[in-house]
Amino acid sequence: MPSSLIDVLQRHRGDADLLHLPAGLSELATLSQVLDRLPDPRRVRGRRYRLGSLLALSVLAVLGGATTIAGIARYATDTLPEVRARIGLRHPPRATTLGRLFSRLDGDALDDAVGAWLARHAADPAGEEALELVGVAVDGKAVRGSRTGENTAIHLLAAALHEGQAVISQRQIAVKSNEIPAFAPLLDRIDLHKRVITADAMHTQTGHAEHIIARGGHYILVVKGNQKRLRRRLRHLPWREVPLQHRTREQGHGRREIRRLKVCTVQPGLLFPHAVQAIEVKRRRTNRTTNKTTINTIYAVTSLAPEQATPERLAELIRGHWQVEALHHVRDVTFAEDASRVRTGTAPRAMATLRNLAIGLIRQAGWTNIAAATDHYRSRTDHAFQLLNLEA
User: Fold this and answer.
1) Please, are residues 193 and 214 in contact by the beta-carbon 8 Å criterion?
2) Beta pairing partners, 157
3) Mind listing the pLDDT tens digit for each residue in 115-147?
4) How many CB atoms lie within 10 A of CB 22?
5) What DSSP line would sit under 314-378, residue for residue?
6) Which of 27, 157, 159, 163 has the smallest CB count inside 10 Å?
7) pTM above 0.85, yes or no
8) Strands 218-223 and 293-302, how do they pair?
9) DSSP state of 268
């Protein structure tokens, strides 16, 4: 078996482009070791399987396309004994064993461990990351299949890197609450130095902006109706006198789209903390079937000064925010998250975390087609082991 992860991917993935991969995987703790350090919710008496081994098996199964706990158990049964032995399993666990474990796991501890491990794999070993701004998108998603009776579905708030869709932090929203109180705890697990937080209008809150700046980060926040006075001021800025600074044209998915961006330096009296520039994005979208054209104007504020980010980079960061929506789409379509009927305890959150981990590593390995990647890793377990740095 080849010893180099990059050699493996180049040999078996065809012409897919490689993204940034860590040069020294051996310097990182193995995923099995990381997972084995999690709080074990099971009683000591009667344990037949090591925690890290069960979770490592689950990661391999999800990487190979398993969408349910029963699917993970089937994967374990179908896997060769020597493969199970590599992660410390003598016998395949039953679905009931996995279900009981997942329903009692500490969701925060699991997300923190997986997020930190993914963040280290996403880091650029050449040091370029320290010189450039890195976009981190904050967005929430309901796991609709987890709804039981009158109880609402669990709602997760995630922070994902624009590049590679790696979820490096995640928190569950409290019942009868919303995403706003979870914003600060979510970011407290991340080093915000040279990070630019992008978020939708819900998170355009003065407290959020203060928290980001206090932690050493920057922000680009969309402004809509929840900040009426701020939006009114942005609309009344002299945009007609501001020259066009960036323009992009794209077509696909049955439409043509032109985006025009203008940036305006603002005075401290803008009524939003640490905002030094205002942004106007005009999006002209034409449906190629009906030939109907719609024009939408978006306003945003940012703490980035002109010398810190060019208009082109601001446009990239605004556009990059929607990578988190693409991540949610993959979880729903390829991994059937919303169709899942896993509902007990913390099991829905644990499964979402495993999907995040699989998608993040697949993207970092350079795959553009997630379904093709899961087919590949299901049939080539040795490649999955190398991708995950997974050993007992």
Assistant:
1) no
2) 140, 171
3) 999 888 776 544 444 558 999 999 999 998 887
4) 17
5) HHHHHHHTTHHHHHHHHHHHTS-TTT----STTHHHHHHHHHHHHHHHHHHTT-S-HHHHHHHHH
6) 27
7) yes
8) antiparallel
9) G
